[in-house]
TrEMBL record:
Name this protein carries in UniProt: F-box associated beta-propeller type 3 domain-containing protein
Organism ancestry: Eukaryota, Viridiplantae, Streptophyta, Embryophyta, Tracheophyta
InterPro entries: F-box-assoc_dom_typ3, F-box-assoc_interact_dom, SCF_F-box_component
Pfam families: FBA_3
The organism of origin for this protein: Lactuca saligna
PANTHER family according to UniProt: BNACNNG10540D PROTEIN, F-BOX PROTEIN CPR30-LIKE
Domain F-box associated beta-propeller type: 63-231
Membrane spanning stretches: none
């Protein structure tokens, strides 16, 4: 089910959307910086501060961004690409994913993924990430699904098994399961994994722990085009 205007849905399905969008932003000097105060937010509580651009953080735009009609209550920010904000909210034990265009004040609700309320429980950890694939000019949402091992006396939320990865393609308007799984050696994704560069050159990044003691770390990269995972070792100077 899509909760957005027909015109925006049509615009998002066009391959020229990003090129025309970026061209318009550059030549019309319409860069707006949205700063979210927390990774979770309520639309009715002014969840962000709008600035005219990143070079003028001291200036604040009042009532510039229009809130979508009938927005969900508590939301969690997933990511932002090309002025589109991706966030999720819980509805009847189901995680609904939305993509919001603040410039047009329109919101797209993604169709149902595989993790419905009847097969989701507290032993699972679901992580979404938002990106853009430049070769196909398509926006993607990646869903990771991990199963926690029983909590021990020294550590909680350790993943014992990563299930199949699901990817949403905006052009097709649907989710699909991909062949490759998230690396099995990852015991947990760092809660501050957003320190990694977000969606650089068609790749998503996660800062991960690879041991149960949460000391050894690697960066796991997902190629949105090839739909494959790769790993990057951290420098000893960074680990120290």
């Amino acid at each position: 089910m899509r909760c957005a205007s027909k015109s925006w849905n049509a615009l998002l399905s066009q391959s020229s959307f990003v090129k025309s969008h970026l061209h318009h932003s550059i030549h019309n000097n319409t860069e707006i910086l949205l700063v979210f105060t927390k990774d979770y937010f309520y639309f009715h509580c002014e969840p962000f501060i709008a600035h005219p651009n990143s070079r003028s953080p001291h200036l604040k735009l009042i009532n510039f961004i229009k809130i979508p009609n009938n927005p969900p209550s508590q939301n969690i920010v997933i990511g932002s690409v090309d002025d589109l904000v991706c966030f999720s909210h819980r509805s009847d034990d189901y995680l609904v994913v939305n993509i919001w265009n603040p410039s047009l004040s329109t919101m797209l609700t993604l169709p149902s993924h595989s993790m419905h309320s009847n097969n989701y429980n507290d032993s699972m950890e679901i992580i979404f990430w938002f990106g853009y694939e430049p070769e196909t000019k398509d926006y993607r949402v990646v869903m990771l699904n991990g199963i926690h091992q029983p909590p021990s006396s020294h550590q909680h939320h350790v993943i014992k098994e990563w299930r199949q990865v699901e990817v949403y393609n905006m052009k097709s308007g649907s989710w699909k399961l991909i062949t490759q799984r998230f690396p099995s050696y990852v015991s947990r994704i760092h809660p501050q994994h957003e320190v990694c560069v977000d969606c650089y050159n068609g790749h998503l990044h996660w800062l991960c722990y690879i041991d149960e003691k949460m000391k050894a770390q690697k960066i796991v990269t997902f190629d949105l085009g090839a739909e494959t995972f790769h790993e990057t070792h951290l420098l000893d100077s960074i680990l120290d």
